[in-house]
Amino acid sequence: MPTPLVYVVDDDEGMLDSVAWLLASVELECSCFQDGAAFLEAFDPERPSCVILDVRMPTMDGFELFDLIRKRRIIVPIIFVTANANVPMAVKAMQHGSFNFIEKPYVPQDLLDLISQALAKSETDLQQRKQKLDFLNRFQLLSNRELEVLREVVKGKQSKIIAHDLGISCKTVDAHRSSIREKFNSTSVAELVNEVLTHKREWCEEL
């Protein structure tokens, strides 16, 4: 897993310097931007990260940038920061799916705690995305007949029942089951079924 990165997007240069210093004090790497477009161009989806995002900025404010992030399906925790907070603004931020909302001036440790939580979530999300991609890549290796057998295996059917339903021999079903386990690097049918059910959404879409 790559080292985590904190993106800071704020038109206030003093704010950027302050957050950069704070993160450096706990040995966290950060990348600072004074506008949303520059952030979008630099964002690395393969690296665990979070975004410290100012609400009020010229050209593109924080909510407009957040909308673009969502439209592009960028998965990253967003922590909104503003000096002009109010209840409706905070509610809007949380309803739109932001990770959290903090008001300036903030307690440095409070911001660091939020960043730590956001980075932990990002690492989990990134790991899950990698696992799903790995699953789908292996899924694509299956033949049509293996897909048919796998459907029945997931339903808990025994080889002789699958053979009868598909009109093939029990020996052929067992050969397909063995091939499926090999392609999924599964040591047992139980392990294979558990992985398939874990990625049930991807499984259903493919079928």
Automatic annotation (TrEMBL):
Superkingdom, taxonomy of origin: Bacteria
InterPro entries given in the database record: CheY-like_superfamily (IPR011006), Sig_transdc_resp-reg_C-effctor (IPR016032), Sig_transdc_resp-reg_receiver (IPR001789), Tscrpt_reg_LuxR_C (IPR000792), WH-like_DNA-bd_sf (IPR036388)
GO molecular function, one term: DNA binding
SMART domains according to UniProt: HTH_LUXR, REC
Domain HTH luxR-type span(s) in chain numbering: 135-200
Secretion signal, residue range per the UniProt entry: none
Keywords for the protein's UniProt record, in alphabetical order: DNA-binding, Phosphoprotein, Transcription, Transcription regulation, Two-component regulatory system
Chain ranges of the Response regulatory domain: 5-119
Modified residues (4-aspartylphosphate): D54
Single GO biological process annotation from the record: regulation of DNA-templated transcription
PANTHER family linked: DNA-BINDING TRANSCRIPTIONAL ACTIVATOR DEVR_DOSR (PTHR44688)
Protein name (database record): Response regulator transcription factor
Organism, as annotated: Kineobactrum salinum
Lineage of source species: Bacteria, Pseudomonadati, Pseudomonadota, Gammaproteobacteria, Cellvibrionales
